Amino acid sequence: MRDDPHHPTIARMKSRPTLQNRHRARHAWVAWLLLPAAAAWAAPPGDAQSRAYASAIHAVIQEKWLVSSRSDALVPGSTCAALITQAPGGIIVKVDFLPDCRFNPTGRQALTRAVHLSEPLPYAGFESVFRRELSMVFAAADAADQQRAVATALASANVHRDAAESDRKWNQEVDAKRQQDAYARRCSFNLLWNMPRIQLERPVDVVVTVDRAGKVVGVASVGAKPVDSRLTAALDATPPCDPVPADVAPDAKTIQVGPMRVRHGH
Predict the structure, then answer these.
(1) Cα angle at 220 between 217 and 226, to 5 degrees?
(2) Residues 6 or more apart in contact with residue 202 via CB below 8 angstroms
(3) Sign of CA dihedral 89, 95, 98, 104
(4) Please, where are the H alpha helices in the chain?
(5) Which domains, and CATH codes, for the chain?
(6) pTM metric for this prediction
(7) pLDDT for 149-197, tens place per residue?
């Protein structure tokens, strides 16, 4: 049987196509359509629906592969033929590499990851032309593209770093202002509650300045009128507020409190 080419078993074995040739025959229209970016591609043969299906798959997978194709782990300009198996609904089942894949193990991992990130592949509206197996050729970016990608990534990192620093400073300023306002409210309550009672003709709005020990060192009227001397004396005689916290306006020697309203007979 071994030497008889006409034996039925031998005949069947010789007529059985190899895995690579079978995929070339069944899915050639996808293989030569789904080329990587920067490579020319033409519409596949067949009806318009098949061409639209192949184009949709190309766009989805290509978007994810573009980032990985610029990895410095890939040999610039190298290519890899892969067989993607999918289930109805566009769910990726597995990614196999054909013999003419020239990617190293790191590149193959990046390719597999990019394909899975494309899930689900286009399916709705393409049920009649659905293909379970897709042969695709991927290519790594050339050296110039990789250099541009590195420059772009560096610029993007700088932008994110500057934005993060700007946010940090903004939050710090907002937090400092919030703490200062909180201290001013506490001090204002302390002054109004503890100051000696005086008789005023009408309510008066004033801004009080305290030093870092919380002691009143200045009183100013809100408006053009001068501050009643009795009010100034009463505030000077009021027990100090709590000391200004070290993290509240640390470079300032004094803090303004108010405006606060002092009413008649307070």
Answers:
(1) 125
(2) 264
(3) positive
(4) 8-15, 19-31, 48-69, 105-117, 143-194, 229-237
(5) 8-141 (3.30.1150.10), 173-262 (3.30.1150)
(6) 0.43
(7) 666 667 778 888 888 888 888 888 888 888 888 999 999 998 888 888 8
